[in-house]
Write the structure tokens for this entry.
Amino acid sequence: MKVTYKDVKADILSKITNGQWPPGSLVANEVDLAMTYGCARATVNRAMRELAEEGIIERRRKAGTRVRMTPIRQARFDIPVVRDEIIQKGAAYRYTLLSCISQPAPDWLRARLDLPAEAKALHLICMHYADGVPYEHEDRWINLTALPKAASASFEEIAPTEWLLSAIPFSEVEISLFARSAEKSLADYLDCTVGDPVFTVERSTWWRENAVTYVRLTYRPGHRLTTRY
Amino acid sequence: MKVTYKDVKADILSKITNGQWPPGSLVANEVDLAMTYGCARATVNRAMRELAEEGIIERRRKAGTRVRMTPIRQARFDIPVVRDEIIQKGAAYRYTLLSCISQPAPDWLRARLDLPAEAKALHLICMHYADGVPYEHEDRWINLTALPKAASASFEEIAPTEWLLSAIPFSEVEISLFARSAEKSLADYLDCTVGDPVFTVERSTWWRENAVTYVRLTYRPGHRLTTRY
DNA sequence: TAGTGGTCTAGACCACAGG
DNA sequence: CTGTGGTCTAGACCACTAT
């Protein structure tokens, strides 16, 4: 059986985790490793490249490869579309548009998205329900200057997230997670008590250097974002 | 100049983002693409593999490659060591051990980490300060059965995170983010008001199938976890 | 069963950065 | 200047799976 890059990767990783190759130590170069594993250099290269991407080792031309002193830990969270998230839990999905107002972009929004003074915006408030229970509150602003056709979309029927996904499928995003307390209207919508701690995801989206949308997604109390790594 | 995998990747991505290859559409196979780009198949393969990893396209043997209907967006957050995080902000770091008790693992912990009935645990409570201001509250349990030498570590001087990092540099982690409200003691330590919404990171760590530690890191009100993708 | 992606190889050239 | 990683190539075989 041939030696695969996965074999090499697993073996190197085990040598690191069991202490044979301690943090900071120099790892043999690709040519030597290829010899010892009896495989091509490309195979070793792929194994090492992936370990480097995962923050386990650090590679530099000429300097060689070292085991990271403090491994860089990264958590990856999937950011699903709410509807998919709810359906995947086996619950029934329902969406409601609460408010939809076209207006000049307020100062704080212009500041945040770096919009010109005359920018127009569409302000949407929506709710997403799972089996009839409030799941997520969506407070969204869409930059009508960058995306004028949003003005004529019927957000009664299609959730803004999904409309935007079809309008601009790929974009640059800044995402921010934090805790805040539910004020009156939020508490009403989420069916919780005023002052309850809620988990909020704030997202700003750009498409080709143009700010497109800013959204605050707030979840019912108790919501968790979970992952493994 | 030779065609690089980055060229190919960028070109494919642009064809997707500008709508030439809409969501759901079938992408030409690797051999054909290699011909049109005038490069080796391996080059196309690497470009496509990365796009697939990034959730832009979906690949299946025989079925071919498709542009994802709803691109899987993944946010990656760096999980830094608190001390590094604070120092990088240009603030002075200070650490305090508030409590350190060795005791039988409570039921909820045994349930969570799947520990045997007789498991012993070390319960630590610590604070991390930035420029003297409360930054993070740490409530940690270490499984002494899996990691007996933790009993003799001097957590007065070294923070558990850092001690653990040297004891078990690489591990399997489950992480969970949520909002909760500060109860009395937490509010005291974080210098905030009881009931304030606080952001909490909960982490369970395994090393070679053995649960090692469970920790709740709670940040002062207003803390945000931010990233771009 | 046949088409597609997944991977390995052996060799080559190059870019970068340490000494 | 030279060692190391980064990448490309052309060809090959294999694994999966849609049809």
About this structure: The helical segments of chain A are 5-17, 30-37, 41-53, 82-88, 107-113, 160-167, 184-190. The first strand of chain A starts at residue 26 and ends at 27.
